[in-house]
Structures are given as structure tokens and as C-alpha cells.
Design brief:
The radius of gyration is 29 Å and the shape is elongated. The protein has 4 helices and 6 strands, in the order ββααββααββ. The N and C termini lie far apart (about 85 Å). With about 160 residues, it is mainly alpha-helical. Helices cover about 50% and strands about 10% of the residues.
């Protein structure tokens, strides 16, 4: 098992710690976030932050926790939000981040499907030795079957204008 599996990597006498690993005791985390340790306890009681716990039940804050504490402080002091508002904003930010990841995953999947479709259309075109023109029914993005809009062609008939 390598050191990297435990959240640390050793290299040239330097140890790097995973952002999620709880390493700071409450006094250090409070100092890094520039707030009183009691404030961190209040935020924990309100469910805004959840520090890891040591085997002896000591609160251990990660680098990400400290950044979150700074964000909470920014929302309360600069934007005047109460803790309920902060909780709502943090939830919305987390959901937004999740949605960005999901959107990127969907874009990658759409790209794969598009490449597959182009390849398959090219294969069929070569096999049929003709162009492929979509016609008739197709499936809409909502999954419902629709009919392609009819194409109207003006036809001039002899003797009628």
C-alpha cells in the first residue's frame, strides 16, 4: 500500500495532504479561518460544517473545511446573510457544482454518441452507395414520437396560374 492511498504523498521531504483529510484541530482551524473556536462549534451544531473525528473524538478539520468556514464568514459579513440563508446558499452551490459535473458527463456522452452516429451513417452510406436523407417519424428530445413537418413544393400546372 502506498502513502498516496492514505491521503499523503512523500516527495523531497514534503508531505501533501488530501483536501478532505481532517488534520487541523479546532483551534488551528479557527485561526486559519480567522474566527473564534466557539463559532466553529455553532456552525457544526447548525449543520453548516461537519469536521472529521479522531479516534478520541477530537474535531479534525480539513483544508476544504477551512475554505468552507471562510465562505460562511464571507456570506455572513459581506452579504449579511443569517445562518439559515448561508445553509441555503451552500446547498445551492453544492448542487450547482454537482450539476456542472453531470453536464460535463452528459456532454462527453453526447459527443461519443454523435461520433458513433456519424460513423454508422458513413458505413450505411457506403453500403447503400447513396446519400441518407431523414424522412418520416423521429423521436423528440422528450422521447415522444413526432412526424417531420411536411415539405411544401409549389407546382405549376399547365393552364393554371
Amino acid at each position: 500500500m502506498s502513502d498516496g492511498e492514505h491521503g499523503t504523498t512523500a516527495g523531497e521531504g514534503r508531505i501533501e495532504i488530501d483536501e478532505e483529510q481532517g488534520v487541523f484541530m479546532i483551534s488551528v482551524a479557527a485561526e486559519l479561518a480567522e474566527m473564534h473556536p466557539q463559532t466553529l462549534r455553532i456552525y457544526e451544531a447548525r449543520g453548516l460544517i461537519t469536521p472529521k473525528r479522531s479516534p478520541r473524538n477530537t474535531r479534525l478539520y480539513s483544508r476544504r473545511d477551512v475554505e468552507k468556514l471562510r465562505r460562511i464568514q464571507q456570506l455572513t459579513t459581506e452579504h449579511g446573510l443569517n445562518l439559515a440563508g448561508v445553509g441555503t446558499v451552500l446547498e445551492m452551490e453544492q448542487r450547482f457544482d454537482e450539476m456542472k459535473v453531470e453536464l460535463e458527463r452528459m456532454r462527453q456522452r453526447a459527443g461519443q454518441l454523435e461520433r458513433r452516429l456519424v460513423t454508422e451513417m458513413e458505413r450505411v452510406r457506403k453500403e447503400l452507395k447513396t446519400e441518407i436523407v431523414p424522412y418520416g417519424r423521429y423521436e423528440t428530445p422528450s422521447g415522444r414520437t413526432a412526424r417531420a413537418a411536411p415539405v411544401r413544393v409549389r407546382v405549376r400546372r399547365p393552364g393554371k396560374d
